[in-house]
Amino acid sequence: MTNSEFRYAHHPNDVKKYTTEELRDQFLITDLFLVDQIKLVYTMYDRLIIGGILPVSKPLKLEPTDDLKANYFLERRELGIINVGGAGKITVDGTIYELNNKEALYIGKGNKEIIFDKVGTEQPYFYINSAPAHCTYPTIKITKKEAEIVELGELKYSNKRTINKLLVNSVLKTCQLQMGLTELHEGSVWNTMPAHTHERRMEAYFYFNLAEEQTVSHFMGQPDETRHIFMTNHQAVLSPEWSIHSGAGTSNYSFIWGMAGENMDYSDMDGVKTENLK
User: Fold this and answer.
1) Is 262 marked as binding a ligand?
2) Residue 11, annotated ligand binder?
3) What DSSP line would sit under 188-248, residue for residue?
4) What is the CA radius of gyration of the chain?
């Protein structure tokens, strides 16, 4: 079963007027993992699709939604998957790829049958991003051994973190989709600080490994007109190209960042000095 939503893009001048409820309704995704369902959110920000797939008692096949007007899901798209749960498997046109926790799979345009399932008794949680694609690149599994890993931040600033660049153009070929996983060290709570924007691409954040009764305050908006959204484990948030994307938690956590747009240079950022945020 597929559960799908559609979200429009928003002008920053309109977002300034949103109430807390309106802000959450338009940018926050709260129920990504539904038992034995595929949850998809199609956003007009670079036409990225954000999704969660939770096969508990049966395999789940990725089917095209009405919004795609396609014969199969990847007819004009590419797909990135990161497993944030127990061992799982993905069958791509008959070829099986097993994904352990924090491992990724890139699937190129043109693959017709994509099936998600468990391995043994463990429960996989498949988080996905999908973007339009105009050529086909090979399906490739990426583990932390193949990833580009960067250490950033300092404990004295509460932002020491490990960035795992998994599905990025320095690791493998994609059309426009870029995905990675950031892990905050114990004692650190700030992510993506100093903040930045990049008007050449949008971004989506998915927070996980956040303990019960803990929260992350995700900051968004233009640098001189910021807003915040309180989030809990296994929730995602959309970040427009004009918005900062940063957060601070009541404990350490991990998050997946996914990007789509015209520029795939990871360092393409318009930095904002911390003292200039408002």
Assistant:
1) no
2) no
3) --EES-S-EE-TTEEEEEEEESPPTT--EEEEEEETTEEEEEEE-TTEEEEE-TTS--EEE
4) 18
Give pLDDT tens digits for 152-196.
Answer: 999 999 999 999 999 999 999 999 999 999 999 999 999 998 888
The predicted-structure confidence for 24-69, as pLDDT tens digits, reads as follows: 999 999 999 999 999 999 999 999 999 999 999 999 999 999 999 9
Please tell me whether 10 is known to bind a ligand.
no
* Domain CATH code at residue 11: 2.60.120.10
Q: Round to whole Å and give the CA distance between 267 and 122.
A: 37
Cis amide bond preceding 194, omega within 30: yes
Domain count, the chain: 1
| Structural domain span for residue 267 | 2-276
Band (81; pLDDT cuts 50, 70, 90):
very high
What are the two backbone dihedrals, phi and then psi, of residue 101, each rounded to the nearest 5 degrees? -60, 130
Q: Is 196 annotated as a binding residue?
A: yes
Q: From CA 81, how far away is CA 108, in angstroms rounded?
A: 12
